[in-house]
Amino acid sequence: MSATACKLALVTGATGFVGSHLAERLIELGVRVRCLVRRTSSLRYLPPGIELAYGDIATGAGVAEAVGGADLVFHLAGVTKAGSEKAYYDGNFRGTESLLRACEQSPAPPERMVHVSSLAAVGPSPDGTPLNEDAPSRPLTWYGRSKLAAEEAVRASALAPRTVIVRPPVVYGQRDTDVFEVFRSVAKGVMVLIGSQEAYFSYIHVKDLVEALLAAGCRDTALGRTYFISNPEPVSWRGFAQAAAVAMGRSVRFVRAPASAAYAAGWCAEIASGLRGKPGILSRQKVLEAKCRFWTCDPSRAREELGWCGVRSLEAGIRETLAWYKDAGWLTF
Description:
The protein is an alpha/beta fold. It has helices at 17-28, 63-67, 85-105, 142-155, 180-188, 206-218, 237-248, 259-276, 284-290, 300-306, 314-327, and strands at 9-12, 33-37, 51-54, 72-75, 112-116, 163-167, 170-172, 190-194, 200-201, 203-205, 226-228, 235-236, 253-257, 294-295.
C-alpha cells in the first residue's frame, strides 16, 4: 500500500517538530490526514486540509475515535523532555499502549502502523562502530528506557506484524527548537563542548526523515521490521558547529567544559525548570547523553530494504535550516 493509496492516515504528535512536517507532506501528496491533538496544542504549523481529532494519547482520551477509519497510522507522539521518569513513561510507553489498545479494539484495525522510536532506545555505541538494528539495547536515560518500553509494547501487540519501527538519531531542520540551540550558540560565536574528547553523532534532516517514514509506510517487506534512519556518515559536534559557522559566514570559538561542571549546570537548570513548571533542554539526563562519545547508527538496512537513499548533505541541510530560521526571525546573522 502506498501512502497515497490509503483512505485515511492518522498522525499522532502532528503538532510537534517532525509530526508537522509529516502532516504537511501527506497533504501535499493528496492524502486524507487526521491528527490527534490536545485542545491546548498550538496548531501553528499544521497545514490546511487536515482533520482534527481532540484527545490525549497519554490518558487514552479520544484515541479510539481518532483511530476509527484510519488504515495507516504514524505514531510520533511522545515526550523528549520531562522532569521525572514517570513523565517519560506516561508520554512514551503508556501513550503507545493506549494507541495500540485503541487500534486492537477498533472494528476495522489499521492495516499498518509506523512507530517512531529513537536511537536512545538502544543507547550509544560503546566503541564508535555505528550500531545496526541487531545491536543489544542498552538505553542510558529515562527517555531511552521509556522509548524501548514503547517498542516492546509494539512488538507484544497484535499489530506487531503490521508495524514498522523507525529509530532516528539527532533530527534537525526547520521548526526544531533543540538543535537550534547549537545554531544560536554559533551565531553568538561561542560553542561549549562537554568533556575533553570529540563526540560524534548520527543525524538526519527532518524532511529526509519524513520521506523515510513514508517509505516505511509503503513497503510490504518492511512490516515487522526495525530501521535506523540517518545520513551515512556521523559528524562531531565541533564539525557540525563549524559547518554552521561557514554557512553563517561567522567564526566560532570552542570552549571545553568538564562533565562535572555540565552536570552541575544540568542540576541548576532542573531547579529553574521546576520553578517555571516546564522542562528545558538542559538537565542531568541530557548531560548523561552528552558525555557519551558515540551516538552513531548504521542506516544500511533502510537503504537496502526501504529503497530510501535521498539524503541532504550536512552542508545543504544546514543552509536550508538556517535560511528558515533567518526568515522566521529566530536567528540574525
